[in-house]
Design goal:
The longest helix has 15 residues, at 33-47. It is globular and about 35 Å long. Helix 2 crosses helix 3. 28% of the residues lie in helices and 17% in strands. By secondary structure, the chain is an alpha/beta fold. It has helices at 11-14, 33-47, 61-69, 88-93; strands at residues 3-5, 20-22, 51-54, 73-77, 99-102, 115-116. It has one domain (3-116): Rossmann fold, CATH 3.40.50.2000. Strand 1, helix 1 (11-14) and strand 2 (20-22) form a beta-alpha-beta unit.
Length: 121
């Protein structure tokens, strides 16, 4: 198991002793997505995961779509911060995920095929 995330001051400490990779978080800047895609592709081709578990955010789109293209199973967990309305990433990934999990029952109205998993802690 390994993690792919973006650089934040607390991440190094949180993931100490695990295998992890940093990629660019393109948050709101479309021109950063090609860099994010290239970084994600390099990591994917090196690791070739059988499944990808994502807890969301736009930075994970490239990894998930690359994985789907190469046959990885995609498990997407909609963010717990969304109680009544779906996230933009969640709305997109709902159509590509092999398993889509929501943390609030109220979101099953927007995601009828989603599995209710309860809150992650």
């Amino acid at each position: 198991m390994y993690y792919v995330t973006y650089r934040e001051p607390h991440i190094d400490m949180s993931l100490k002793g695990t295998e992890f990779y940093y990629i660019l978080n393109p948050h709101k800047y479309w021109w950063k997505y090609p860099v994010n895609f290239a970084q994600s592709l390099i990591i994917f081709l090196k690791k070739r995961p059988k499944f990808i578990l994502s807890t969301g955010s736009g930075m994970a789109l490239s990894t998930c779509l690359i994985g789907k293209f190469f046959g990885s199973k995609i498990i997407f967990i909609e963010t717990g911060a969304r109680i009544h309305t779906p996230s933009l990433t969640g709305r997109f990934m709902y159509h590509f995920s092999d398993l889509f999990i929501v943390q609030w029952e109220s979101l099953q109205k927007q995601y009828p095929k989603a599995l209710f998993g309860g809150l992650l802690f």
